[in-house]
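Researcher: Batch entry, complex prediction.
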Amino acid sequence: MSKISIKIDGISIDIEEGQTILEAAKLAGIKIPSLCYHEDLRVAGNCRVCLVELKGARNLVASCAMPANDGMEVSTNTHRVREARKHVIELLLSEHNADCTKCYKNGKCELQNLASEYIVGEHMFLDLVPDKHYSIDRYNPAIVKDDSRCIRCQRCVRTCEQLQSVSALGVAYKGAAMKVSTFYENELFEVVCTNCGQCVNRCPTGALVEKTYIDEVWDALYDPNKHVVVQTAPAVRVALGEELGFGPGQRVTGKMVTALKRIGFDSILDTDFTADLTIMEEGTELLRRLKRAIVDKDPNVSLPMFTSCSPGWIKFIEHTFPEYLDNLSTCKSPQQMFGALVKTYYAQKRNIDPANIVSVSIMPCTAKKFEADRPEMRSSGYKDVDYVLTTRELATMIKQTGIDFLTLADSSYDSIMGKSTGAAVIFGATGGVMEAALRTAYEIVTGREVPFDALNITPVRGIEGMREASIKIENTLPAWGFLEGVELKTAVAHGLANAKLLMENIHAGAKSYHFVEIMACPGGCLGGGGQPIPTNADIRKKRAEAIYDEDMNMPLRKSHENPEISIIYEEFLGEPLGTKSHELLHTHYKERLRY
Amino acid sequence: MNEKTLKRVDIIFTPEKNYNEVLERTFRRPNSDILNDILDSGLRGRGGAGFPTGMKWKYTADQESENKYVICNADEGEPGTFKDRQILTQVPYKVFSGMAICAKIVGAKEGYIYLRGEYKYLQAEIEEELNIFHQTLDKLKFHFRIYLRMGSGAYICGEESALFESMEGKRGEPRNKPPYPTVSGFRGQPTVINNVETLVYAMMICDMGPEQFKELGSKDSRGSKVFSVSGDTPIAGIYELELGMHLENFVEDFGDGDTKAVQVGGASGFCVPRKKFSDTIIGFEGVPTGGSMKLFNSSRSMYHVLQNYLEFFEEESCGQCTPCRVGCQQLLKGIEAVKKGKKNSAYLDRLIRLATTMKYASKCGLGQSVGNSFVSIVTNFREEMIY
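Model: Structure tokens for the complex:
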């Protein structure tokens, strides 16, 4: 990469060749407004808000799409630019249901911000909305799609295709009728959508939002007959702060627990507890599958085994690779294990009628809302998880409560089901489940800790879309002699586009593994669809650092060392993969159509 | 009054029986010689935009790539344009030959004809002719194949980058430029894309030499051009005429004696009112056209003409970029509101400013040219818009 020099508004700036005018302007400290542009996506250049004047060009150019050339002279502030920007914003508003106070994104909308910056008062053009017959899709438990709020920037379409290889969302029709739609204009719940919410995370307006359950949760909290239990997922604690005044990568675990107490939850518990439990169940399941394959030579055993924590990934494989459903671990996700235990084990121990328990989970995820609604997820005899809120919704509740989050003191989780280890925390990052599983499985088999410095299995960490690692198993304990000398081959993928590539490699026979971790969202749960907006590569990196930091600071860092885990097996579950476990902690999957 | 009558030209539709001889002669010449002839002739693209053909070929030839493509844009979708259909029906081998010569110069092995969806009835015939043409190429030991691709009826797919998207099986939406097709076109490879007529002229320049071509036309608009003449004229049809003509002469020859306006270049072109006939030149130095010349007499309402164009654009915009998608709706609804008295006449000035923004803010040629007809009709026939 060679350096080039360009001039923006009279300011000379040296940049790398290949950078766009928009990127160069950012470096020069000049803000050019944009809407369709997103760091994670390929450039579209369709909103035309970022137009600038380029010396020598007849027309204005979209700065997001125009590569900077040496010697270019750009003006971002001419009469033509100003008029064009204002026209574009006015045009978008004329097609847009600008009833902002009724919008879920009120105050957090990129179009609203621009309208306020450019002082759009009396509308310049005709209101086109009454003739549009826009529709709202409310039939999905996770995502609401409101076409009247859509500005057709196609961030969602590009997200669904480029990051997720799902393409549930696409563009339909042309001209005035052009819209973002689905296969045959079906509702989202009828199509291949995985509910991952990556589109929700990137939508600049209120066209794609999570379905919110805040009011239902408030109702439960104020109901004196209800015992409301909340669980918080690993990735929430490293991102929640972004919504409440902290910078990215700030761990706010203790403050979050205090805030939840102040909001009025009866018991603040940790999904990390069932993350540890997942490792016990899933690790045991993996070792059993390996035994069946190696010792029993059972041709029906399905390897590699895939992780099953990510509900976006589950729905993806059900649609796209249904022939591999037997390869999925039968373990429920930590959220659903938790829900099933809250209304059985917890209810017994606390002597509460499970009918009066309301179980709420705070997740970095929108797909978890769909997962909680799956008909299989009622093994306690009740809906195991009643309401799922995203990180963003929790932040809204905290704001509604009037809490000054920045100055809040720390608190600890309640017990039982509140204790966890560092192995559970790293579930929030891509590669984390793999690392946690290896820390435990290796030790079960060999009696020794995994041979990595400070338990940090760095080969499975990182941001590459697909990663591989293998561990040679040597000097096993007598019971695991059949694994002596076996090279345990693992792979990790995050973002469904990468997952699809990995699956195609496996399907083509180009790759073979024993154990594969897949997370639907880029970066894993820390980059989930329910996380604070914006989420981008830089922010994901900071959240990941915070997660590994939290792991290093935990006194216990291996799931099997969690004392509450030992207790629950002694008192309630019996043993991993035992009868009770099967009843409460494991599930099955179903094939779905491919559109 | 200018006494000169229009010069009718006969280059495009001359018999094509000797096309293989032209190819044989041309294939024997060095690429640089042929390219120099095309450059020297001053031939510019006949689709409407008028980019110098020789430069386009040269830029593509200069690119290093295993796979390059020559594409014939036969999506002829501009309202009032119907000459490519006639060329492909009457002299298809000239079109193919133009593609083959281009392929030789740029180093392409594959060519494509992207045919307008409504011309599907031509498909079988063209495919048959392509088979014969391929045999001719084999005899000449020139390795090149042309394939036919059908459009599906979207106007936007005549825009070159949307056409590539369509050919790649995607939604027909224009791409960002740069990169230009000569660098990254079909399948991301260096691509020459030319209008049907341009390819025929290129072939004919190889046949007759650049001098004869250069003698026709004006300094900025060399040669002749095929026009599709329609509207209020007793002799509607297809005519090959010298470029650089005065519109006044054209109206004398083709008008019905009561011509009040001529729409030059179709819906995306310019409307010239009677008072400007005498100082309007048809060509790149004046008003350019992809071929459509539509005459209107005094019985026509220019409001309805404009409304018709805007209805067309409102539907045929691909919808991806804001100025074009929403701008077209606003212009259409805007003139309707003025006509109905719901907006006062000053609103037309606001719409003219919007049309001007669309011209320099839209992503592709479609949105950029909506303002041509809008501004020219509203400015010249303002009363008709209001009363």
